[in-house]
# Entry
Amino acid sequence: MAKITLSNLRHSYYPNPSKPDDYALKHLDLSWEDGGAYALLGPSGCGKSTLLNIISGLLVPSEGKILFDDKDVTHLKPAERNIAQVFQFPVIYDTMTVFDNLAFPLRNRQVDEATVKSRVEAIADMLEVTDMLGTKAAGLSPDNKQKISMGRGLVRDDINVVMFDEPLTVIDPHLKWKLRSKLKELHQELKATMIYVTHDQTEALTFADQVVVMQEGEVVQIGTPVELFERPTHTFVGHFIGSPGMNILPCEVSGGKAMFNGQSITLEGEIEAGEGKSNEIGIRPEHVTIADNGLEAVVSKVSDVGRHNVVEAMVGGTKVASITEESAPNLGESIHLQFDPAKTRLYRDGWIATKSAGA
# Structure
């Protein structure tokens, strides 16, 4: 396995890029430690697949370097990088048995048969497909085909990194959680460096130790799932992660205070010095409570999602969502909302602009 470093990386599909918007990747400096589980998370078009192709060697970046354990691999071919890749659609040979599919990457490198048998049996046991080893792959269910595709990527012990490009896209929803759990188990057992590319926050947050959130070719935050949820450094992260996402409320800043709908809102800490084009308050629905006093609001929608209710209420002309496990108010009812000060932050031009408690 390898530590992967991306240094001063930029990439454009134009021959002569001249402005920031010409770049699919605008500027990246990242390091992924050997043996870590990482996710690239973001919407379609944010640059995550471009980055994956650069790491794998399918693309040469316009600028910057890719290092594997401090070795510059920027211009090496994919075959020279010792990378395994698992794609959206299972890459297996239907006419081969499961055993032969798993053995193929090893036999292709002329590994002796005793080692092939040992590695295949070990991976099959981890994947819980030992009883299928003699079965032709054509008869497998889609989730088992993807298991075999994953196994082909994991069977080699000389790979630097295993990369997963939206591997659960074609899997039925009720089976996805099984494969997510299995993949997490495999990482914990093999300690392989793994990078998982997805637009699905659930997949990213349940698999990765560190999540890289991307938007429009830029990294907006890197952190653990808890860090991304608890303290988003950008409004995009707050909106993209969580269901429902973070409330992002327009506000004015005056005298070091944030004013929303004519009322001063207590924040987690002091507002950092600086100016911007826009100011917004960010607070997650989990930290908005229905109380006896606070911001006056009128209930506009109630959604019962089983474990709790999501209450949407209008404060003036702005919608604010709240999550409550208590009985929900009625549509049109007047209520009061309170924000947890420790979880209420100011964002300036999208970026967090309050000092954290104790900072």
